[in-house]
Design a protein that fits this description.
By secondary structure, the protein is an all-alpha fold. The protein has a single domain, classed as Orthogonal Bundle (ABC transporter involved in vitamin B12 uptake, BtuC), CATH 1.10.3470. It has 15 helices and 2 strands. It has a two-stranded antiparallel ribbon with strand order 1-2. Strand 1 and strand 2 form a beta hairpin. Helix 7 crosses helix 11 and helix 12 packs parallel to helix 14. The longest helix has 31 residues.
Length: 336
Amino acid sequence: MRNYFAKNRYTEMLLILLAVVLIFFSAAQGAKFWRADMLRGMCMQFPEFGMITLGLMFCFISGNIDMSFIALGDFAAIIAVRYIVGHTDDTMSNGAVGAVILTGILISVCIGIFGGFINGVLIAFLGIPPVMATIAMSLVWKGFSTALTRGDAVTGLPMLYSDIGHSDVLGFIPFPLFIFIIGFLIALFLIKRTTYGEKLYMIGTNPKAAAFSAINTKLLIIVTFIICAVYSNLGCMIMVSTMSSAKADYGSSYLMRCILILVLAGVLPDGGYGKITDVILAIIIVQIISSGVNMFPQLNTYYASLIWGGLLLIVLIISTGMTGEGLLKRLKRAKS
């Protein structure tokens, strides 16, 4: 039993934190926090940054980081929306409009594959540090987006896109949540049931040893950044269905939130560790905090950066103490 809890320390911490968060907001807001529309709103909101977080998780497990995934997702969404708007009109049937929407989403996925491939080549073949390479690419994608739109939102999407985004599957599962569940199952399969998942943890734990084990580390890094980009782009396309538009900075608020979720779940950029179930728990916790904070009128959007930045700092201090040579570890040694 002791070994079980030692191996699941992050799961323990997340479950305790989830209970604390639920108790706090239940006490602060009462029955209003448990309204059906409130819960449905949460299920509509977290799939956006949840999909993006799942993609970034692959990079973190491999010991890399991608700072361009949001900018790339926004750019891909702009291109996809421009295509959809330019190829639909009011005279078209729902079937024809749906085909155009599907094509636009596939365009977004292809852009993600291309962008992830570029990141992988810059890091794996040219040896540029991941942070520097992806920050540079973030500026490139943000520049393309701003140049195309002049900073304005791309609007004019057919109502069918928004209707699909707000529809239910099987009568009770919000469509964004349904897409997120599919994304989660695919990620779970890749990590748990494929040799790619095994190699991902190996390269994150010890990249030099992985290279000597006949693992094509360069190809693995490229594939990992492609997966990250595709997940991010799909998350941004979910965002488009709720916003009914695309803009160069729509996803920018999710950058720190996604990193916070992964750090909270114990998935650090050092690589070699990460449980997808812990990531899901962290996503739910962050969504509950986000929705709960929005219920306090005195805490407006201007405090969002302060809240997420402060939480990230606290979680970093705690997590480094749980993973080796962190502050809490040193304090324990000093006392002994």
